[in-house]
Amino acid sequence: MTSRIFFILVAIITIVFIYRNVRKNQISQDESILWMIGAIVILIFGIWPELIIILADAVGIDYAPSLLFLLGLLFLFMFSLRSSQNISRLRERNKELIQNSALLEKRIRDLETKINQIQNKTDKGDA
Fold first, then answer.
1. Are the C-beta atoms of residues 8 and 47 closer than 8 Å to each other?
2. b/e per residue 15-24 (b: at least 16 CB within 10 A)
3. Which of 8, 9, 17, 86 has its CA 20 to 30 A from that of 103?
4. Is the overall model pTM greater than 0.85, yes or no?
């Protein structure tokens, strides 16, 4: 019974923590979805621990707590994969921004050169 209360409290605290971080813009809504799913799964298993045994039997796992480790591993794998996708997308966007910045710097230098040339011509014409 004590473990049930512990897991229910952990799940509720996690849900509140995620919600507060989303409201403070410390974590994006997209990223919070996986964390919320994980917290809800912990809450469900905290409320109905028999569900772990039922699911383990359905999957064919002899030792029910092994299912928890498997689910935790799958959760971490999904989160890692999603993080890798975000990193790849940000890396590509960063590359595009660097290229655009370099092109803009070149245009500025070209325009400054043209302005200097025009100023030099007008200075020579006034003299």
1. yes
2. beebeeebee
3. 86
4. no
